[in-house]
Design goal:
- Chains A, B: Pfam families: FAD-oxidase_C, FAD_binding_4.
- Chains A, B: It is an enzyme of class 1 (oxidoreductase).
- Chains A, B: GO terms for molecular function: D-lactate dehydrogenase (cytochrome) activity; D-lactate dehydrogenase (NAD+) activity; FAD binding.
- Chains A, B: Keywords: FAD, Flavoprotein, Oxidoreductase, Transit peptide.
- The structure is a homodimer.
- Chain A is of the alpha+beta class.
- Chain A has four domains: about 1-80, Uridine Diphospho-n-acetylenolpyruvylglucosamine Reductase, domain 2; about 85-205, 2-Layer Sandwich (Uridine Diphospho-n-acetylenolpyruvylglucosamine Reductase, domain 3); about 205-315, Alpha-Beta Plaits (2-Layer Sandwich), CATH 3.30.70.3450; about 315-395, Alpha-Beta Plaits (2-Layer Sandwich).
- In chain A, about 35% of the residues lie in helices and about 20% in strands.
- Chain A has a seven-stranded antiparallel sheet with strand order 15-12-14-13-17-18-16, sandwiched between helices.
- In chain A, a hairpin with a 5-residue loop joins strand 8 (about 150-160) and strand 9 (about 165-170).
- In chain A, helix 14 (about 335-350) runs antiparallel to helix 15.
- The longest helix of chain A has 20 residues, at about 375-395.
- The two termini of chain A are about 35 Å apart.
- At the A-B interface, strand 9, helix 8, strand 11, helix 9 and helix 11 of A face strand 9, helix 8, strand 11, helix 9 and helix 11 of B.
Chain lengths: ~450, ~450
């Protein structure tokens, strides 16, 4: 492939190492080579070649996955789609845009400047849209705008044998056969490689305002969230940060937030609607002892606030110099959220490693940042214990082991516990039907073993 | 099976005939027997028996499909789920409910009375929720609340070999593996039989008001819709009825609407939000020559209005006594809607059979009710011509041949044109993986032939 693609087929150590890790604490696993794809046809060509030689293929977007999705655990070729970064069409009138898979969410939003439209899905990292679709990403805006599942209309996908298919279309809805788009969203590159996608856009709300409110304890904050959601207030964002996270954020982002459990809100709509929503939520918050709302209505202030929120993960990493973090990602029905968080806090009190808690609580989704020295057996043991109990707790509450990070290699062992042996067997049957020689991102999502 | 299930296994002529047809004009095809299922385990048992004897299985809900989905075109056993009609749990705090597949949407909404919650998906007919999931149904509220795709969280499904799986869960979002829920939604009983499902509920808006507005011509009405959607006004319903439909509705429902192209609107929200939305849309309508809004704010008046809308299909049938209708169901990107409707109107002007037009134009979805005497070759020829051209037009506009009715047997011939040979081959591979002997609703969705 070297002669066919020149420097776009790279086998140098540093490029391989860079493509063998993501944002997670998983042990890096570099691919044997990296191919920087320039087009869907090129991806198909390389996939066919890999098929001939039985070489595993690992699609790579921005490398911002957190469950080891991009790691080449069985070797093979990393197909880096980041140079496929053209915005192919913006259909403003139809509120959609078609992009190559390597376009990132910030790049798309920059291109939308002046159009009155935006792409709301925001997982924090400036991930590629292809990667976000592949992991069914969501983030802070999902409570209002949904996840990638809800915001992708159509895709171009290269299959395991190099065939190229188009799924979906640009109509807002369709009942025409099996929903291949939704099957591929969240399949983490194990069923096909997404090379182009059409995403929904949304009109920029006339008014947007963000606020921060501190609470005496975490239960009061969570109860405020639950009641706001149950009343159907269409909040655009409602994020919880525990006291430890706030203290990390203050240090990292030079903010001066009170170091208490805190909710970050954002409201979108007409000026009247925003003020109405804010009033309702302020009333709820104050009934649970929430202290006054600190508002950010200017765009710069809102951006600064959300940047601080997005940096929370990195801020937490600095709580324990030299540490690594392994993030957790459970999501539970909202009625169980307070209980789930409380029991988790009780567990946290029983271990010695620092653990910060924050998340997209409007969806019932929260993360722990479990800070470990990977060389310390006791740290790792505590971290495993916390994570295992957390997942068991979420599953017992009809929740999921992952709200938005995906399975990767980090959560394969929970698949059967969450879905049951038979449903996992169905997933295996689909994988075998679409990728019979297991070339596409092998070892991800499905647990090892033929029947478990 | 007679001795095992007694009268719940029925082979009488009239029951078979009743289960061999739906609301469509397709030639009825009665099953060899009808099994009235009482539980998921019973469905699994009958599926296993059918597997042993290679007997086709056709799931049956309320019989309100319109593309022949319930017809036993290859014989076999119709599994009638209408007696599995228990509401299993209402989780008001989590805004979800778990029901057996035979529960109808009106039944669920009746059970929700007093809870402050409702289930919004409303395809007109009082369909079963299992059937609605199986055809990815939507209807008048979809522009605001989405389709069945967006409103099902979890399902219990009997597979072709009698295994029972649970898909999804009660968390609002999850990235845990392949989205089997979405794969099965819209699969029309060809991949599995949905026996239970958990659906999302929504808080009943504080204020709801409906209005009717007549326009000088259909283009003015459509332009009003397009502009409202592009501005992001969160209308709950926005329905177009052409002049012929209005005249049929007036006769059938004893209304006195002006016989002009007309939009039916509904607005949901706080009183202030409803009045704000209404004001914006009234402004748009009046700029396009819309005549004054006639408001229905009392619940009875709103219900009467929407009943009249839902009866439009039956009202149209009475335009030509003794006729049958075959409905069309294209959906296009909103920017192409005016052009699509105008070109279709031009076609309608060229045929002699009466054709009414109405639909869920906020989603770009509209129906023709093409009234034919099935015995008249010229009627059938005209109808086919209209339909064929309409689907080609929608596909050329990046739309779909079916926005909400599904494929059934009526639209299999458009599958390759819409999705391409390779995507249909992927669907076939999935079907073969999950139902290798083709027992589940054979002949539906996938076109005949191994490779097309």
């Amino acid at each position: 492939m070297k002669c066919r693609f020149g420097s776009r087929f790279a086998q140098g150590e540093s490029i391989r190492v860079q493509h063998g890790r993501d944002e997670s604490a998983h042990e890096p696993a570099p691919p044997d080579a990296v191919f920087f794809a320039g087009s869907t046809d090129e991806v198909a060509e390389v996939v066919r070649l890999c098929g001939q030689y039985r070489v595993p293929i690992i699609p790579y977007g921005a490398g911002s996955s957190v469950e080891g999705q991009v790691l080449a655990i069985h070797g093979g070729i990393s197909i880096d789609l980041s140079r496929m970064n053209r915005i192919l069409a913006i259909h403003g009138d139809d509120l959609d845009a078609t992009v190559a898979a390597g376009v990132t969410r910030l790049q798309l939003n920059a291109a939308l400047k002046g159009s009155g439209l935006f792409f709301p899905i925001d997982p924090g990292a400036d991930a590629s849209l292809g990667g976000m679709a592949a992991t069914r990403a969501s983030g802070t805006n999902a409570v209002r705008y949904g996840t990638m599942r809800d915001n992708v209309l159509a895709m171009t996908v290269v299959l395991a044998d190099g065939r190229i298919i188009k799924t979906g279309g640009r109509a807002r809805k369709s009942s025409a056969g099996y929903d291949l788009t939704r099957l591929l969203i969240g399949s983490e590159g194990t069923l096909g490689i997404i090379t182009e996608l059409t995403v929904r856009l949304h009109p920029i709300p006339e008014a947007m305002s963000a606020a921060v409110c501190a609470f005496p304890d975490i239960a009061a904050a969570v109860d405020t969230v639950i009641q706001s959601i149950q009343l159907g207030v269409p909040v655009a964002r409602i994020e919880l940060l525990d006291a430890l996270t706030i203290s990390a954020v203050n240090r990292h982002s030079h903010t001066t937030l009170r170091e208490l459990p805190t909710l970050f809100f954002e409201f979108h709509g007409s000026p009247a609607a925003v003020s109405e929503q804010a009033q309702i939520v302020q009333g709820i918050a104050s009934s649970f002892g929430g202290q006054e709302f600190a508002w950010a209505t200017r765009n710069e202030d809102r951006s600064r606030l959300w940047q601080a929120r997005h940096d929370a993960y990195f801020a937490c990493l600095q709580l324990k110099p030299g540490c690594r973090a392994f993030p957790t990602d459970v999501c539970v029905p909202i009625s169980r959220l307070a209980e789930c968080i409380q029991a988790t806090k009780d567990d946290i009190a029983r271990v010695s490693i620092p653990i910060a808690l924050f998340g997209h609580v409007g969806d019932g989704n929260f993360h722990l940042v479990v800070l470990v020295d990977p060389a310390s057996a006791s740290d790792m043991h505590e971290a495993e214990w916390i994570n295992e109990r957390l997942v068991e707790r979420a599953l017992a509450m009809s929740g999921t082991c992952t709200g938005e990070h995906g399975i990767g290699i980090g959560k394969t062992r929970f698949m059967v516990r969450e879905h049951g042996v038979e449903a996992v067997a169905v997933m295996r049957a689909i994988k075998a039907a679409l990728d019979p020689t297991n070339l596409l991102n092998p070892g991800k999502i499905l647990p090892p073993g033929a029947s478990s």
